[in-house]
Write a structure and sequence with these properties.
This protein folds into 5 domains: about 100 residues, no CATH class; about 140 residues, Beta-Lactamase; about 110 residues, PAS domain (Beta-Lactamase), CATH 3.30.450.20; about 80 residues; about 140 residues, 2-Layer Sandwich (Heat Shock Protein 90), CATH 3.30.565.10. It has 18 helices and 19 strands. A 5-stranded antiparallel sheet has the order 6-5-9-8-7, sandwiched between helices. A 5-stranded antiparallel sheet has the order 11-10-14-13-12, with helices on one face. Helix 1 runs antiparallel to helix 2, helix 13 packs across helix 15 and helix 17 crosses helix 18. Pfam families: PAS (PF00989), PHY (PF00360). InterPro entries: GAF-like_dom_sf, HATPase_C_sf, His_kinase_dom, PAS, PAS-like_dom_sf, PAS_fold, Phytochrome, Phytochrome_cen-reg.
């Protein structure tokens, strides 16, 4: 049904149509575009046979060319949007023309136009009161057209910040000149319509949307508008006379007045533009984020690590104060230079292996958007080595997140180095570990060297036991018995593990023994330790220990614990004093008929007793094992044994 369609049949292929009013349409046509496609794998025909004698591909693999005709280029989103906007404008213009031809005023025609237009439009009369208010503006401000009509634009609807600009635009429009790109800030009233959700883009992933700014309800609506005057002739009919441009402002006042009279009487001013609220909110949020970023990254707080960044071309675009302090290079020396080749290399020497690892990490962050951790090793301008963990993260453009896949616009790097406090703590820990290893080495040496003489003592003791004269001397037998028990105690101690004994694993054994034998060993220890400090030593017992029956227990551990108590008391007794080892045996100490009670007391003439630090070490009241002394360790183990 298109008139003369056969004449354009060969030159027209694609078509786009838009409906205006009833029976009115607008068509856009496109010429066909030929497309050449190379195919591999020709269509098989039953009459074709492959020559089996030839070593060539089958006939069905032969390439062929296809020419696609009667097709046009597809319509893109930009073109469809332009057609939609133009159709809305034409529809509004046609409706206004019809209404004006029926005897309506320009204001009434404008009201009908504003019902269907999607852009923020409004008009005021010569007094500055609203006579037309578009539905789009009503949704943005929360003020319906009926409530807005009759209100003063300057006094009731605009914010204080834009009143001066609105007054200037009204003055310009009343004089017949167009005021362009005026920023108007209007108040909001009541509940606003929720803004339309943005369409997800290709960079937002399969199920994600773009990041939006200013999602909270704003307190004002920001518009960027153009202001034009509405004219009527002497009969009140609207005039469609072009308005004066801004360049004509420099003309003489007489010519401007003549042009204004030619246009007729100004009945109002129309404002048309676009809603910039979301954009302004995004700009403000971006400025706040940028200020927060500058305050954090460029802070000289010791908690902020060294940070540097590159753009998509590999040039350094960030170098914070912590990086300046660490490397000795100021920000102005590195910005705009290639990070690999101009910064790390000539300015900051870096070995080939760390430089290659950094290049790989930066490439992954820029192309694939994958963060990574690398060990960084370079030198400062002062020649000091810099060793730390480098974390590389991708940098993304505003509104594009890492969830969209794809690369970023560069990379940002965080260099984690040890602080001075941490370095001191690590040095102290290393020194402590070295000291512990040295102590273990010395202990191993002493144990190894003590086993040889101990074996010699054992051999001599075995030989002495074969002497026939030994049976005739009771004193010699007692001395040999004490020597044997001291030797057995030394053998047990050389096989002890300090860590296990500190945890309570004492390795107790059970054997038959008598308290008399233990007291003889302790008396030998006391008689040997006290003369070194000119002390008077006594070993007392409340009963005849020889009459006490034999008991089951570990005599070696018992004499080890009591021997440590006696030796420590002798060490902390003032010279010329006295030390007494007293044993109390009685039935009142026994819990039942099958046990015997025995109490050992170490008394000495020190006025203060053991020092307070030594008592704390004996009861393990320490914050750290490093504060434990040798005497405290012996007392702690002796307390556990007892």
């Amino acid at each position: 049904g298109y008139p003369k369609a056969e004449e354009v049949g060969a030159t027209v292929c694609g078509m786009l149509a838009a409906r205006l009013l009833e029976g009115d349409f607008v068509f856009w046509f496109r010429a066909p575009v030929e497309k050449h496609i190379n195919w591999h794998g020709a269509k098989h025909s039953a009459t074709e046979r492959d020559d089996e004698r030839l070593m060539t591909p089958r006939v069905s693999f032969v390439a062929f060319l296809e020419v696609v005709r009667n097709r046009s280029a597809p319509w893109d989103e930009l073109e469809i949007g332009a057609v939609r906007s133009l159709s809305i404008f034409l529809r509004c213009h046609l409706e206004a023309s019809k209404l004006t031809n029926k005897g309506g005023t320009p204001e009434m025609a404008l009201v009908q136009m504003l019902k269907s237009v999607s852009s923020p439009l409004f008009s005021v009369d010569t007094r500055g009161c609203v006579v037309a208010w578009s539905e789009a503006l009503a949704a943005a401000t929360g003020l319906s057209p009926a409530d807005a009509r009759g209100r003063s634009l300057l006094r009731d609807l605009s914010n204080e910040a834009s009143k001066k600009a609105i007054a200037w635009a009204l003055t310009q429009a009343m004089q017949g000149m167009r005021a362009r790109e005026i920023e108007v800030r209007l108040r909001t009233f009541g509940a606003r319509a929720a803004p339309a959700a943005p369409k997800p883009s290709a960079g937002a992933g399969a199920g994600g949307a773009l990041r939006t700014f200013g999602s909270s309800t704003p307190s004002e609506v920001v518009l960027k508008v153009d202001a034009v005057a509405l004219f009527t002739d002497e009969n009140g009919d609207p005039l469609e006379v072009p308005v004066l441009e801004e360049e004509e402002e420099e003309e003489e006042e007489e010519e401007r007045e003549r042009a204004r009279r030619a246009r007729g009487e100004v009945t109002g001013v129309c404002f048309v533009g676009q809603d910039m609220t979301e954009l302004k909110a995004a700009e403000e949020q971006f400025q706040n984020m940028q200020s927060d970023y500058m305050a954090i990254v460029h802070s000289r707080n010791s908690l902020i690590p060294p940070i540097f960044a590159i753009n998509a071309t590999g040039e350094c675009c960030e170098w914070n104060p912590a990086m300046e302090t660490l490397t000795g290079l100021v920000r102005s020396q590195v910005l705009g230079k290639l990070l690999l080749g101009e910064v790390f290399g000539p300015l900051l020497p870096m070995q080939m292996a760390p430089k290659l690892a950094l290049s790989v990490a930066l490439g992954q962050a820029c192309s694939a958007g994958a963060p990574s951790d690398r060990t960084a090793l370079c030198e400062t301008r002062r020649g000091e080595p810099v060793n730390g963990l480098l974390t590389v993260h991708p940098r993304h453009a505003l509104g594009v997140g890492a969830e969209g896949g794809g690369g970023g616009t560069g990379a940002v790097c965080f260099l984690h180095t040890a602080s001075e406090e941490l370095k001191e703590a690590l040095a102290l820990q290393t020194a402590t570990e070295d000291l512990a290893r040295e102590k273990v080495r010395v202990t191993t040496y002493v144990r190894q060297q003590a086993r040889g003489p101990l074996d010699g003592i054992k051999h001599c003791r075995a030989a002495m036991q074969e002497w026939p004269q030994l049976a005739q001397h009771a004193q010699a037998q007692e001395a040999l018995e004490v020597s044997i028990r001291c030797e057995q105690q030394i053998t047990r101690v050389l096989d002890d593990e300090i860590e296990e004994m500190e945890e309570g694993f004492l390795g107790m054994e059970s054997d038959e023994c008598k308290f008399e034998q233990v007291l003889r060993v302790l008396a030998s220890v006391g008689h040997a330790a006290c003369p070194r400090r000119t002390l008077d030593f006594k070993c007392e017992a409340t009963a005849d220990m020889a009459e006490c029956p034999a008991v089951q227990g570990d005599p070696l551990r018992l004499q080890q614990a009591l021997g440590d108590f006696v030796a420590t008391a002798a060490q902390f007794t003032p010279e010329g004093g006295w030390l007494v080892l007293r044993s109390i045996v009685g039935d009142q100490l026994a819990a039942d008929d099958h046990t015997i009670g025995c109490e050992f007391r170490v008394l000495h003439s020190s006025p203060t007793g053991l020092p307070e630090p030594m008592v704390s070490q004996m009861f393990d009241n320490l914050r750290s094992k490093e504060d434990m002394s040798q005497q405290g360790l012996c007392l702690g183990i002796a307390r556990r044994i007892a």
